[in-house]
Amino acid sequence: MTDFRVYAIRYAERDARRGEHFHGYDSRGGEPHPTAYYVWLAVGDEHTVVIDTGISRARAERAEGLRYLASPVEALARLGVTADSVGHVVLTHLHYDHTGTAREFTAARYVLQQAELDYWTGPWARRIAGERWLLNEEDLAHLQAARADGRMLVADGDACVVPGVSVHLVGGHTAGMQVVCVRTARGHVVLASDASHFYDNIEGDRPFPILHSMTGMYGAFDRIKELADGPHLVVAGHDPEVLDRFPLLEPDVAVIAG
Ligand SMILES: [Zn+2]
Ligand SMILES: [Zn+2]
Fold first, then answer.
1. Is residue 229 assigned to a domain?
2. Centre of ligand 2 from the C-alpha of residue 194, in Å
3. Is 113 inside any structural domain?
4. Tens digits of residue pLDDT in 9-59
5. CB 88 within 8 A of CB 160
6. pTM for the whole structure
7. Do the domain assignments include residue 171?
8. 68: which of 60, 74, 86, 169 fits an S-S bond (Cβ 3.0–4.6 Å)?
9. Cα 249 to ligand 2 centre (Å)
10. What's the structural domain count of the chain?
11. 67 CA distance to ligand 2 centroid (A)?
């Protein structure tokens, strides 16, 4: 089995405050605490897997305060990966900032947790009013059509995407939040996505305030630590610090494992 090379690609950023990123009152809540937006790429000898698809250009234009650096699809193309050549697209969860360009991966098989689909399409879905803005209905419709066409691996817990890349249901942030574990030459890397937006979430044991289950979030932190071959191989989902902790290929592309 070959090892994968893994990259974190920042496609947008936004100014924010600490209080937006940690559950509960904190005297430091007013301090600046910017958010970065990423997609992730795992490349092996036989397989190319994209993890999350970011925000579409059309949606980004309506997003207040967002500095859109590039469409994730354009950013991948600059690295030599065209959307139509990608075999698998893992969607860690269905928030709009992770599904926005999914439809552009025309040949890909999507990987999503059953619990995430159930949450947004089940009998209570219409009543999730407060959180509904985080879902892009068009993306969900596209993914449901792809599922009907047999273009989706619906996972229920742990699942192998391709040899060396696996997904793991952790919940916490959303009902069906999954993290991705990738075998690399450095050991097993875990792409935490929104299971730990920032390193301060997992390393300080402090949940993010948008959550489906508080205890689930603690369980997710533990599972990430179990899966990764060391804390230096955990990749937080929205932390600008990813670009400081790992060497850069380009200003917005970190090499998690080369
Ligand atoms: Zn999210
Ligand atoms: Zn997110």
1. no
2. 5
3. yes
4. 999 999 999 888 888 777 888 898 899 999 999 999 999 999 999 999 999
5. no
6. 0.96
7. no
8. 60
9. 23
10. 1
11. 15
Neighbours of ion ligand 2 (CB under 5 A): 97, 194
Whether 69 has a pLDDT exceeding 80, the answer reads: yes
User: Domain with 78 in it: what CATH number?
Assistant: 3.60.15.10
Task: Quick: pLDDT tens for 166-204.
Answer: 999 999 999 999 999 999 999 999 999 999 999 999 999
Which ligand sits closest to the CA of 97? 2
What range defines the domain where residue 40 resides? Answer: 5-165+241-257
What are the C-alpha distances in Å from 141 to residues 6, 74, 121?
29, 23, 10
Cα separation of 81 and 255, whole Å? 15
Ligand nearest to the CA of 93: 1
- The tens digit of pLDDT for each residue in 111-127 reads 999 999 999 998 888 78
* Cα-to-centroid distance, 211 and ligand 2 (Å): 12
